[in-house]
Amino acid sequence: MAELKPYLQLTRPANLVTAIADILAGMAIAGFPFSSFDPALLVVSTLGLYGGGVVMNDVFDAKLDAIERPERPIPSGKVPLQSATILGITLLLIGIAAAAIFSFQSGMIAVVVAALTVLYNRFAKHHVFFGPLTMGMCRGGNLLLGMSVLPESFQQWGFVALLPIAYIGAITLISQDEVHGGKRRTLYIAVLLYLVVLSAQLFIAQSKGNILFALPFVLLHAWLIGRPLYNAIQNPVGPLIGKAVKAGVISLIVMNASWCVAFGLLPVGLAVLALLPLSILLARVFAVT
């Protein structure tokens, strides 16, 4: 088990739970009745895509991590670079294959998400604009992957995938200052992007007559991401920014639960919310960023 743990660390288990929540939220937005287990392949797909993506993140950052984060699995020597590369590529291929088996549309979305993941890790990551945009597109694509359970939903609700782009863009933007500290201006931009997402959820919930059920979920989400971000704004040092990033990632589960409830699926929203304690528990054992 001790030998396996560094490989698990590379996949960010706490984050993998949030990827599952993306799929469930996408299915809820599409109007899937959750009457069968057929879309389980989409869950397998997102685990492969997300896991492969974060593993390749550490592969491409191996030299930088040797300086800034030598305790990570690759620079510490616990996982050879070649082994990590094989693991990352294999997981991405599993993600694509699982989606393609489910449907052609799902497979195409998975291919795009995998390509965006590599593009982010190899080229866009350290760019102040294209980095957050590309990572946000990966998460938006993940939501579309869930919606592909009923692809006819794209025409009406496909625009909702823009909101995870804004949300993840905010997290990625502030994470660029996680090691050395940052500027309040960046954090204020993140606040604005967060507010766009929260407001959109409330608007859609109101338009569908589900505002009373969705409001507690949205408020919980606002509190979970707002408190650490406020602390970081007061003192924009690396550790506090890191806590704001961690809260933003894990709170994706609450955002996805809010989507489920906004679209009238309270039981599914509660089920998604129940993933939060699991993600928090895993975050205590495995790094989130």
TrEMBL record:
<feature type="transmembrane region" description="Helical">
    <location>
        <begin position="211"/>
        <end position="230"/>
    </location>
</feature>
<feature type="transmembrane region" description="Helical">
    <location>
        <begin position="14"/>
        <end position="34"/>
    </location>
</feature>
<dbReference type="InterPro" id="IPR044878">
    <property type="entry name" value="UbiA_sf"/>
</dbReference>
<feature type="transmembrane region" description="Helical">
    <location>
        <begin position="186"/>
        <end position="205"/>
    </location>
</feature>
<feature type="transmembrane region" description="Helical">
    <location>
        <begin position="265"/>
        <end position="287"/>
    </location>
</feature>
<protein>
    <submittedName>
        <fullName>UbiA-like protein EboC</fullName>
    </submittedName>
</protein>
<dbReference type="Pfam" id="PF01040">
    <property type="entry name" value="UbiA"/>
</dbReference>
<feature type="transmembrane region" description="Helical">
    <location>
        <begin position="156"/>
        <end position="174"/>
    </location>
</feature>
<feature type="transmembrane region" description="Helical">
    <location>
        <begin position="237"/>
        <end position="259"/>
    </location>
</feature>
<dbReference type="InterPro" id="IPR000537">
    <property type="entry name" value="UbiA_prenyltransferase"/>
</dbReference>
<feature type="transmembrane region" description="Helical">
    <location>
        <begin position="81"/>
        <end position="101"/>
    </location>
</feature>
<keyword id="KW-0812">Transmembrane</keyword>
<dbReference type="InterPro" id="IPR050475">
    <property type="entry name" value="Prenyltransferase_related"/>
</dbReference>
<feature type="transmembrane region" description="Helical">
    <location>
        <begin position="130"/>
        <end position="150"/>
    </location>
</feature>
<keyword id="KW-1133">Transmembrane helix</keyword>
<keyword id="KW-1003">Cell membrane</keyword>
<keyword id="KW-0472">Membrane</keyword>
